[in-house]
Amino acid sequence: MGTKITPYTTPEKESKKKQVERMFDNIAHKYDFLNHFFSLGIDVLWRKRCIRVLRKHKPHTIIDMATGTGDFAIEAIRMGLDAHVTGVDLSRGMLDVGVEKVKAKGYEDRISLLQGDSENIPFEDNSFDAYTVGFGVRNFENLDKGLSEMHRILNSCGITVILELSKPKAFPVKQLFGFYFKYIMPTLGNLLSKDSAAYTYLPESVLAFPEGEEFLKRMSNAGFEKLRHKKLTGGIASIYIGYKKA
After folding, report:
1. Distance of CA 4 to the CA centre of its chain
2. Residue 238 · residue 164 · CB < 8 Å
3. CB-CB contact of 70 with 87 (8 Å)
4. In this structure, what is the dihedral angle of CA atoms 39, 2, 200, 188, given to the nearest 10 degrees?
């Protein structure tokens, strides 16, 4: 099932969901810079790969879960998808940054951003042609419930495209990435974001995530079919693709 990892150690019984919301509120003002800085800009290329997959299916309605500051949604429109994207995120702080980015691009009529929860999505069954999530599924408090909701709101034959960090297995990428992830990123993240937990939680949550075939099995249990995944950049990230049955 995977180990439950939370951003903060608190005496109160604060849920992972509330901790993740608080964490992203804390780092929202620096998130875009740090995201691109730590990935050396490769995260942009990864999103483009995902959107090329979507483009083949010509979805008209897309929900982008854990949308953050809206990068996935904005890139989808910029790359020419003839669709309306609804971005959903727990963090009001991240969404506030995203709203300003959407306005600056002139995409207000193509992208809607709202605060919401992956495990209780405020839409009816069969509402979207596609579901995307970039670097967000490992933050779900109840992964199986989140996948079930993902399946519920998709139309018949709808596609889900999930981009997530993963653990490289081959030498020397495994060793280099492990050192960078465990020591360099948390140190710099703490200095630049002023939240000591956020960039310690990141590598811990990746290590605990049920990646690869194990994650595909979880998707299958939620009802998805025609499942496949593709490793990116030596296994640092993965794209997972699945479909709702006709």
Report:
1. 17
2. yes
3. yes
4. -10
In the chain, the number of structural domains is: 1
Q: What are phi and psi of 124, to 5 degrees?
A: -75, 165
Spatial separation of the C-alpha atoms in residues 110 and 133, rounded to whole Å: 18
- Residue 172: asked if its preceding bond is cis (omega within 30°), the reply is yes
Decide if 5 is inside a domain. no
> Left, alpha or beta for 5 (phi > 0: left; psi -120 to 50: alpha)?
beta
Helix axis angle for 185-193 and 16-39, nearest 10°, is 100
6 belongs to a structural domain: no
The CATH number of whichever domain residue 83 belongs to comes to 3.40.50.150
Tens of pLDDT, residue by residue over 9-42, are: 765 678 999 999 999 999 999 999 988 888 989 9
Using CA atoms, how far apart are residues 29 and 91, in angstroms rounded to an integer?
12
State the residue range of the domain holding 152: 16-244
Taking residue 104's Cβ as centre, other Cβ atoms within 10 Å add up to: 9
**Residue 126 falls within a domain, yes or no?**
yes
Question: Does residue 3 lie in a domain region?
Answer: no
Per-residue CA distances from 70 to 88, 128, 161 (Å): 9, 18, 16
For residue 239, the SS3 value is strand
Question: What local confidence, expressed as pLDDT, does residue 14 receive?
Answer: 86
